[in-house]
Amino acid sequence: MKQWLLPKSSLPKLADTIRQTHRLYAPVRLPDQVAFGEIGEGDPFTLDYANARTSVKTLFFPQAETMLRYERSLDRYNDISATPVDSVPTVVLGMRPCDARGLELLDRVFGQGQYHDPYYLARRQATVVVALACAAPRQTCFCHAVGGDPYSGDGGDVLLSESDEAYVAVAQTTKGQEWLASLGLSEADAGHLATAETIAEAAHEKLVKMAPAAGLEDKLTALFESEVWGEIAEKCIACGTCTYLCPGCHCFNIQDRVLANGGIRLRSWDGCMYEGFTVHTSGHNPRPDQGARWRQRVLHKFAYLPENVGMYGCVGCGRCITYCPVRLDIREVIARLRIETAAQLQGEQ
Amino acid sequence: MSSLPTEIQQQIADWLSTGEIDLFIGWEQGSVPLGATPAFVRDPQDVSRLIWDATCENNLTAYLAKFKGQKVGIMVKGCDARAIIGLMQEGQWTRENLRIVGVSCPGVVDARKVASALGITLEELDQAEIVDDTVVVGDQSFALADTIHDMCQTCNRRNPNIEDVHLGETLPETPVDDPFGHVGEMEALSSDERWARFQAETSRCNLCFACRNACPLCYCTVCFADRTQPQWLTTTSEAEDVQFFQIMRTFHLAGRCVGCGACTRACPQGVNLRLFLDKLRLDAQEVFGYTAGVDPEAQPPLRTYRQDDPNDTFL
Amino acid sequence: MLNDRMMAPPKDLPAIWEPKIVAFLCNWCSYAGADLAGTSRIQYPPNIRVIRVPCSGRVNPIFVVEALRQGADGVLVSGCHPGDCHYISGNYYARRRFTMLKRYLEYLGIEPGRVQFSWVSASEGGRFAEVVTKVTRDVRALGPARRLSINKVNASETDQA
Predict the structure, then answer these.
(1) Interface ipTM above 0.95
(2) What is the pTM assigned to this prediction?
(3) What is the CATH number of domain C21-142?
(4) Does residue B166 form part of some domain?
(5) In angstroms, rounded to a whole number, what is the distance separating the alpha carbons of residues A244 and A249?
(6) Tally of CA atoms within 13 A in the half-sphere of C102 that contains its CB
(7) Which residue from B31, B206, B235 is facing A244, i.e. has the nearest CB?
């Protein structure tokens, strides 16, 4: 696989080149956060950042989207039109490997099996994802514990790695290969490659030591009736911030919204942290307390998804840890569950 | 990391061992910088986990609704204590079922302000410590007083007005110049400008409901926002939904909001909810001479009436 | 925006905008007053849509905000005069509640005059007509209500709007 050199100074020019043929999203530094925004002519963006507050899934799976609409007039009944899917050619520049792995997860959920999600897939197919490896993992990063890596290329089409005033760009897919070849870049020289290697090693050293989650999926379901879930969830205020910011969370609701002269069918995010998530029409709720809802969150991410699609539902980005209003830390949850599974195993022996 | 003084630890342990309380709600060390986390202690031996410092920003009284009817101990700052009285005023709690450790609070740190002062985002704040009256981040330090939340900077009730024991020194209540100045600024704008301001402030909201869930006075078992028969809110975060939720949730606190600021601190998007709720608090004072969370016997203004109430709203 | 260009109104509606005002009228006083205006053949603007409630105290503030959200250009809540409430004190609670609500909505930028309140008794047919005339005039002057409405273009408007 060819290794191209992308000097940092050429980024604005690269943006202009991309914008000739594609819509461009890149990280923008705002007063209190970094967010992915659409880049117009001359708009500033940065690749020098930790992570965006909201995950990139929003660009592929927005919080609310119209699936179809109908119009009504006095002489006709309903005129239904399906919303055209968004397949505008797009480049997302500079997302982190954890976010890219989040897309890998959504690809499996929305693209495998019997039913495919046309809205998500259209955007995904029309987008070149240029991921940016992490030279400086943070204290809240734990991608390495859930099957990821600060230098993982999963889910991306291109991976950029930090070097000396430049990035080394390597294609991860055919789409990425074709895109890179079209940019007229030079190949990376030995010096830049060596620097990139050194930086990568240092980055891996920075990772907070953590036991990998591997193997947990087999033991968690045994804890289904345990009281540990109630204890874990006691301080959770069920606000759903973790769900909203998570690159892997993808549960949604579909409902019709009636307006004056017609209406729309709306798909919008839902969250298992909310009481209403499983409330039945009868009023019965099979997950009546926050402990049951936390059990669902953990089991979905660490037991059911590995079984169903072959990867964890958590990519270790750490957003939920940083933004939880009560500082409920999923790493502490996993650690607690390990103790519990070990205790249970001992109890059985 | 500041454990509680021995005598306070002992008091809480005694309450637990004698069964005066079944549970004590306090704060303990969290896993991210400048953020303590709520702790639920049932075993007297776990009392040593509890801390008090300027990172203890959560209003723990929001958890009381979950334990209604039980005997609970709790730690409260000045603002939090008002919420307990608010709950008592509305018949949600009786004094006998509570054991309260009050602490005088000089203000709690806003980690976003620290990040902002360093020119970084919250994700990039890997480490920070409070040492006496300063916040220390690596080789930089800031005066604690400069990093506390805006609402703490205009606080005039640093001491709890309800408690069984007190932790530490009582702080002087410094009178605050124009505590509702931000409300006055909004009132001075034209109708169009106010709407623009309201739109701008709420545009960041994505309807996560952290504000509602962190609020001790939002204890309805089914919130209007969650009802489906009828359905008031659809599930998007389009401007119309956000505005509707913000107007109605805050108005449900008319005459009830104690101004603790838990909502504003909980919001992950930094929406300035205080700007809306303080108008309601100001009106309760100006129109009905009422302040929530002060007198357990007093009736919230919308639960009562006088025959000579102001009539000028009506044609 | 999800609602963009959703609601271009049908071509067969009149081309002049007329305000739509939702009026919550208490059964015992204001509704009866409205009825008296009708039987007395007093002319007044036809822009109100009446919702009869047992008492002004029954009116939840959410109804007022929801009416604006659903596209009403104005809202009127009318009840018995203080002291005359059929349920003794319902309108006293309403008075406090709507004093707070009106101040709050105006603070947040809802135009003064969109949401109005009145006391009209069962014998005040003429006064009811006057109140409705005033409210309609005020709302007409403010133009179509857009601020909370989920319909970006109300069905009551022309397609030039």
Answers:
(1) no
(2) 0.91
(3) 3.40.50
(4) yes
(5) 7
(6) 24
(7) B206
